[in-house]
């Protein structure tokens, strides 16, 4: 995944600040990071081979570095987390889960 694809995830922090809910925990943010990374991996994968753990870990590290500093302690709702869990694409998380 290219760094330019990560830029939209920077915007996730702002909506979390404004939403009702509770402060996001480290666990909440890790769940979001892992879900985004898994979806990015699936979107980039051209085949249905088993997941390459090294490649997935690389994507997780990139997403983690961008998102974690803007996530922990910010406001998050259970609806937003449910949306993340049910999203079928990373774009869906960006566009629907944190409006």
- Pattern of helices and strands: HHEHHEHH
Shape: globular
Helicity level: 55-70%
Main sheet makeup:
2 strands, antiparallel
Let me know the number of strands.
2
State the separation between the terminal residues, measured CA to CA.
Answer: 24 Å
Which strand order does the major sheet show?
Answer: 1-2
Unreliable residue runs: none
Radius of gyration: 13 Å
Beta percentage is: under 5%
Kindly name the structural category.
mainly alpha
Indicate how many domains the architecture comprises. 1
Q: How many helices does DSSP assign?
A: 6
Summed over residues and divided by their number, the pLDDT gives a mean of 80
Walkthrough of the structure:
The chain is mostly helical and 99 residues long. The protein has helices at residues 3-10, 13-18, 26-44, 53-67, 78-86, 90-97; strands at 22-23, 75-76. It has one domain (3-97). The protein has 6 helices and 2 strands. It has a two-stranded antiparallel ribbon with strand order 1-2. Helix 3 (26-44) packs across helix 4 (53-67).
How would the blueprint of this fold be written?
Blueprint: H1 3-10, H2 13-18, E1 22-23, H3 26-44, H4 53-67, E2 75-76, H5 78-86, H6 90-97
Antiparallel strand pairs: 1-2
Features:
single chain, 99 residues, mainly alpha, two-stranded antiparallel sheet, globular
């Amino acid at each position: 995944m290219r760094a330019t694809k990560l830029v939209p995830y920077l915007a996730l922090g702002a909506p979390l600040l404004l939403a009702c809910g509770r402060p996001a925990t480290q666990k909440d943010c890790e769940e979001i990071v892992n879900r985004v990374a898994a979806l990015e991996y699936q979107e980039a994968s051209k085949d249905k081979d088993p997941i390459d753990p090294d490649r997935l870990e690389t994507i997780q590290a990139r997403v983690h570095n961008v998102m974690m500093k803007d996530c922990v302690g910010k406001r998050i709702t259970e609806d937003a987390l449910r949306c993340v869990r049910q999203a079928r694409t990373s774009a869906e998380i960006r566009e629907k889960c944190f409006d």
